[in-house]
Design brief:
By secondary structure, this protein is mainly alpha-helical. 65% of the residues lie in helices and 7% in strands.
Length: 150
């Protein structure tokens, strides 16, 4: 029997809750909030960034990025520098410890994807990816395509 749109939505919400909890636990394991872990993840993918670029990647305001970066500088997770030729620009980069955290999180994400999608054939997986992208876009969510390919 085919599922109704409402039943499919229920399953999507359950999946979203599970994934959200997984991300929150991963962040907490490193003493971080989810937004701070996301910022580290962006720096891990993109390398050194201007704070304004981070705001674009994270789809938040420059003020929010400043608060995130301030906290991460204080905790020793990132360093903020100013290029000598333009002191208005603030560059943000990972510390060695944060690079290790990002590598561990990336490895855990790969392992989770392998476990989660085990048993799905390529057609099912690609269909899930395409539908997910459409729905995220329709809901006005962040476009993951802005980040470098993982």
């Amino acid at each position: 029997m085919a599922l109704s749109g409402s039943e499919i939505l229920d399953r999507a919400l359950m999946l979203a809750e599970e994934m959200s909890g997984s991300i929150e636990r991963a962040a907490a394991n490193y003493g971080l909030t989810v937004p701070r872990l996301e910022l580290l993840f962006v720096l891990g993918l993109e390398g050194e960034c201007k704070q304004v670029e981070l705001a674009t990647f994270l789809d938040c305001s420059p003020r929010q990025v400043t608060a995130l970066v301030d906290g991460l500088v204080a905790s020793g997770h990132v360093v903020r520098t100013m290029p000598p030729d333009d002191r208005r620009v603030r560059l943000v980069n990972l510390t060695d410890e944060s690079r290790r955290i990002v590598e561990e999180v990336v490895s855990a994400r790969v392992a989770l994807a392998e476990w989660l999608f085990d048993g799905l054939d390529d057609d099912e997986l690609q269909a899930f990816g395409a539908v997910s992208e459409k729905l995220v876009s329709r809901m006005g969510g962040r476009a993951l395509s802005r980040l470098a390919t993982q």
